């Protein structure tokens, strides 16, 4: 038998393979670390703590795994690392991961558990050769470039007791490719802490959310696309609980130097608001939210042109966002009901609206949110699956002729809520290591142009808040009237406007308590004003004053409108607007002019300066007029003079007659 001469390249390859096998034999041999206590998972499960992903050349891969405690340490217990037939599309990968359609095994490496070292955390260090060029005797061979399912199986006495699935990506040694712009949405939203009575109650659930949010954005080094509900910041700052103040400081420190997308003061369904005629209310809540963020986050940048939308979006919502000056719209899967795309949702698109300034739409991946929120707490496997899906998705898009520069991958949970910090840590680490992705904050993404892919939103979405907006419209009339009593700088004016948002907020399930609570606050302010009934008033001249006292028990000055009416009196000054000093009694003087004398009723009405809402129920008291008009006085004086003249003449005549009758002449 002839022996073929070996080329230098072939000799080098064989030597490399032998070295890999030798290293594998050395590292899987028993060591002192095997005496460490092994960590464990529940029976029937196992978990990967760390693994390789991108395989460029022949190398050995280390899988740090946890196996069930019931798995013995004898030679009958083994771990098999299996490589399966390469997958070529995202759909195929989803069928493997979700439906269990695992392709055939093409290679396997088996290691006895007693020969596997244990690290300081109790995880098994399973090391196997990964062959990228030559099939080795004890390695996993991946001949072609692409994505490979990898199953890790625990077998005891020939029976499989636990297994898990992950993926490896076989790439060329000097792989270079244009990166896909990718972003991860991290939003902090919650049920409002402001109560219907105006009190602030921050519960433990919100505190835990805030702590997780802070830990995520400070621990995971990534340019997240961040949005924070302004009401959360406002409530933490104004809470009387000391731990909330400390949490507020930690949150503002964590957000310093970051760019945030602008949200309304509380979450509002923009499409439902527009359709219910509440566009002005939405814009007002947006302004209030911006004011809070600018005031409380002086070291952060608020990007008001970027919106993160979590409620179903329709044409009316798009138009309202455009009117609000929004130009980049990031949508979570929950906002994308019945969307249609000219190409793919993973392409930067523009809203299919006639607009001179196109609105950029960045759409979240429609399936990854299920992986992000999976109840299975295996963040390493989930992160590798997500990146594997994105790589295959990119391949699918390129096959359909879509350029990498036009692709946009947005990763979000279904409604933008938080996910596991460990998952995000694993995910961002993988994305940063892969040259095929560039992580950015979508608030800083470049604007779309009219020639980009068209996204058609539905004409009408599912949200309906018309009942809420009708209640709010009635309430706003009373609110505007009541706030006209307050000084212009009173904080309740802004606070009550903020509470308007809770009535139409998409995160408030029962709005009626807020309507009732605001009405109670309005009435309480008006009830601070009382009137001391003067009883009977006497006017002794034609032009006089009606005097009475009003009491203001509120800690601030209040302004009211006073109107007095009576059929026998005229009021030259008309209705009087009077400011009542805080917690004191004010003398009220109303100039009047009498029409006639006598006793009659006077009606006093006290209302808000604007809107004529009753502050004090109409009060009646009596007035007695003793004044006589000028002509009457002249007649009376003339009559008296005539009487006096008559009396004087009569007296003198009588005196003369007596005098004459008293003289006797002699006869």
Q: Can you tell me about this structure?
A:
The model is unreliable at 1-34 (pLDDT under 50). Strands 11, 12, 13, 14, 20 and 21 form a 6-stranded parallel sheet that branches. This protein has a 6-stranded mixed sheet with strand order 15-16-19-18-22-17, with no helix packed on it. It has 15 helices and 31 strands. The radius of gyration is 43 Å and the shape is elongated. With 667 residues, the chain is α/β, with parallel strands linked by helices.
The major pleated sheet works out as: 6 strands, parallel
Helix content: 25-40%
The CATH level-2 architecture of the largest domain is identified as: Alpha-Beta Barrel
Name the CATH class of the largest domain.
Answer: Alpha Beta
Radius of gyration: 43 Å
Envelope shape:
elongated
Mean pLDDT: 87
CATH superfamily of the largest domain: Glycoside hydrolase 38, N terminal domain
**Helix and strand composition category:** alpha/beta
List low-pLDDT spans. Answer: 1-34
Number of helices: 15
DSSP, total strands: 31
Distance separating the two termini: 211 Å
What amount of the residues lies in strands? 25-35%
Q: Compute the number of structural domains.
A: 3
* CATH fold title of the largest domain: 7-stranded beta/alpha barrel
Describe the structure concisely for a colleague.
By secondary structure, the protein is an alpha/beta fold.
């Amino acid at each position: 038998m002839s022996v073929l001469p070996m080329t230098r390249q072939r000799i080098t390859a064989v030597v490399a393979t032998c070295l890999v096998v030798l290293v594998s034999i050395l590292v899987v041999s028993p060591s002192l670390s095997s005496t460490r206590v092994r960590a464990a998972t529940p029976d029937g499960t196992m978990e990967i703590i760390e693994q390789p992903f991108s395989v460029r050349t022949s190398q050995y891969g280390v899988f740090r795994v946890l196996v069930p405690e019931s798995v013995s340490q004898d030679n009958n217990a083994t771990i098999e690392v299996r490589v399966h037939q390469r997958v070529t599309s995202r759909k195929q990968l989803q069928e493997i991961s979700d439906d269990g359609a695992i392709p055939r095994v093409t290679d396997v490496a088996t290691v006895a558990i007693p020969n596997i070292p244990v690290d300081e955390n109790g995880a098994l260090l399973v090391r196997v050769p990964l062959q990228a060029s030559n099939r080795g005797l004890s390695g996993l061979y991946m001949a072609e470039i692409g994505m490979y399912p990898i199953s890790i199986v625990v077998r005891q006495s020939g029976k499989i007791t636990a297994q898990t699935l992950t993926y490896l990506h076989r790439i060329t040694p000097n792989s270079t490719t244009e990166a896909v712009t990718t972003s991860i949405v991290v939003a902090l939203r919650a049920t409002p802490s402001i109560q219907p009575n105006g009190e602030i109650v921050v519960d433990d659930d919100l505190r835990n959310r805030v702590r997780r949010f802070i830990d995520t954005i400070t621990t995971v080094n990534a340019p997240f696309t961040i949005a924070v509900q302004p009401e959360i910041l406002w409530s933490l700052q104004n809470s009387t609980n000391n731990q909330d103040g400390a949490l507020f400081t930690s949150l503002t420190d964590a957000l310093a130097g970051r760019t945030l997308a602008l949200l309304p003061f509380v979450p509002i369904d923009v499409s439902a608001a527009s359709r219910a005629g509440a566009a002005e209310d939405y814009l007002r809540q947006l302004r209030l939210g911006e004011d809070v963020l600018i005031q409380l986050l002086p070291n952060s940048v608020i990007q008001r042109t970027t919106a993160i939308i979590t409620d179903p979006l329709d044409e009316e919502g798009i138009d309202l966002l455009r009117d609000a000056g929004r130009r980049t719209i990031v949508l979570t899967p929950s906002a994308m009901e019945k969307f249609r795309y000219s190409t793919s949702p993973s392409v930067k698109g523009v809203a299919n609206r006639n607009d001179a300034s196109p609105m950029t739409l960045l759409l979240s991946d429609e399936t990854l949110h299920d992986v992000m929120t999976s109840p299975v707490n295996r963040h390493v496997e989930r992160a590798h699956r997500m990146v594997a899906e994105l790589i295959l998705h990119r391949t699918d898009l390129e096959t359909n002729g879509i350029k990498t520069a036009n692709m946009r991958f947005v990763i979000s949970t279904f409604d933008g809520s938080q996910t596991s910090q460990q998952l995000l840590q694993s995910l961002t680490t993988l994305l940063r290591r892969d040259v095929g992705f560039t992580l950015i904050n979508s608030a800083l993404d470049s604007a779309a142009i009219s020639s980009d892919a068209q996204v058609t939103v539905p004409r009408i979405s599912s949200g309906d808040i018309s009942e809420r907006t009708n209640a709010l419209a009635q309430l706003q009339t009373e609110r505007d009237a009541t706030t006209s009593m307050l000084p212009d700088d009173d904080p309740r004016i802004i606070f009550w406007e903020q509470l308007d948002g809770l009535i139409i907020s998409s995160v408030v399930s029962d709005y009626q308590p807020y309507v009732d609570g605001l009405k109670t606050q309005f009435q309480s302010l008006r009830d601070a004003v009382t009137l001391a009934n003067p009883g009977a008033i006497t006017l002794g001249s034609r032009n006089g004053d009606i005097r009475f006292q009003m009491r203001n028990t509120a800690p601030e000055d209040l302004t009211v409108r006073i109107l007095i009416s009576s059929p026998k009196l005229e009021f030259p000054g008309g209705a009087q607007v009077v400011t009542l000093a805080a917690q004191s009694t004010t003398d009220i003087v109303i100039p009047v002019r009498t029409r006639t004398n006598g006793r009659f009723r006077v009606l006093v009405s006290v209302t808000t300066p604007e809107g004529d809402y009753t502050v004090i129920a109409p009060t009646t008291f009596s007035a007695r007029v003793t004044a006589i008009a000028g002509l009457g006085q002249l007649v009376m004086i003339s009559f008296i003079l005539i009487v006096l003249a008559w009396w004087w003449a009569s007296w003198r005549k009588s005196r003369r007659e007596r005098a004459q009758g008293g003289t006797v002449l002699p006869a």
